[in-house]
Amino acid sequence: MKKLFLPLALVAVLFTSCNDDDSSMVTPEPEPIDQTPTPAQELKLITTSNTSGKISFTDLLATTPTAKSFTISSTDADGVYYDTFKDQVVLASRTNNRVEAYNRLRNAIISSATTLDLSFSSSVDFTNAREIAVSEDKVVVAQDQNAGNGNVSKFYVYQRNTSGFTLLNTYTVDIKLWGIHLDGTTMYAIADNTSDLVVYNNFFSNATGTITASKRVTIEGLVRTHGITYSPQDNVMVLSDVGLASSATDGGLVVINNFTSVLNMTNNLGTIAMNNQIRVYGPNSMLGNPVDVAYDHVTNAIYVAERLNGGGQVLKFAFPTMSADATPQMSRAEAGVTAVYLHRR
Prior knowledge:
Layout: H1 2-24, E1 43-49, E2 54-59, E3 68-71, E4 77-83, E5 88-93, E6 98-103, H2 105-110, E7 120-121, E8 129-135, E9 138-143, E10 153-160, E11 165-173, E12 177-183, E13 186-191, E14 196-200, E15 209-210, E16 215-219, E17 225-231, E18 236-241, E19 252-256, H3 259-265, E20 271-272, E21 278-281, E22 290-296, E23 301-306, E24 313-317, E25 330-333, E26 337-344
Parallel strand pairs: 11-15, 16-20
Antiparallel strand pairs: 1-2, 1-26, 2-3, 4-5, 5-6, 6-7, 8-9, 9-10, 10-11, 12-13, 13-14, 14-16, 17-18, 18-19, 19-21, 22-23, 23-24, 24-25
C-alpha cells in the first residue's frame, strides 16, 4: 500500500500544479485608480499687525471661516509662519527686535483664549525687521536698512529647535530689503524702493559676511514692490506693488506664470516685460499698499495684506487670467495688517 500511495500523491500534486499554472494565465482586471484629489486636512490663514499687538487665525475649511485674534507680546510684528507639527507660530517682532515663537495655538482656539503666551525667542540681534522666510529648521529675518541699524540691510539666519533660536549666519546685502521668500535653498527677495526682484542661489552655503545676488531683474511697469511669494507646485510668482506709499488706491498685483522659464530667459539686470505678466490694478481691487501676499496652489486664490486702504484689510482674489481691475472675493478689516501666511496640509 505504501508503494501505491506515493505515486498517486505525486500525480495529485502535479495535477494541482497544472491547474494553478492554467489559472495564472488569465490576466486579472486592473483595479481602478482613484483620481479624486485628497482633501485638505488643514487650510489656515495667519496674519500679523504693526499696530494692534495681535495676530489673527482663520480656518478656511470651516463652514463659515471666521478670523480669531490673539494678543501677543509684540505690538508691532512683521512676517509670520505656522508649523502645524509643532503647533507653533513664528514671527519677527519689531517691538522687541527678536524672533518669537508662540506654541499651543490649537489649545488657545479650543479654549476660546484671547492671548498667546510667548514660548521662547531669539536674542536681540536685528532692528527694523520686515519679513521672515522658513525652510525646514532655518528661519531667515530680513532687516531693512534705517538710521537705527547704520543703514545696513542684512539677512539673519537662525536655526530653530525645540526651545530656542540659534543665530547661525548674517549676510549683508547691497539692496534695501522688504519681502523675501525661500524655495529650498533659493532665496527670492525684493529690492525695496525699486521694481526689482533679486535671487540668491545656494543661499545657506554662504559664510557670514557680504553676499552678492546670483541674478537681479526688473519687473516692467511695477513701481515699488513689497510682497512676494512663489509656488513651485505650479511655477507661479506673485508680487505686490505698493505704488506711492502715500496713496491708498494705486497698488496692484503682478502674477508671472512659468516663472522659472521666464526668469531663466531674462538676462541678469534685464527686464521681465509686461507681456509675461498678469496685472491686477484699479479702484475695484481696493489695493493701495499691499505689503504681503500668500497663494494657494490648489484653489489658486491670492491673499493680500493691504496695509493702507481702510486702515488695513485682508483681501482674497481669484487667480487672474488676464490683466484687469478685479474685485476681491473677500475683504475684512484688520488694523495695521503687515503679513499674511497660508498653511495647507
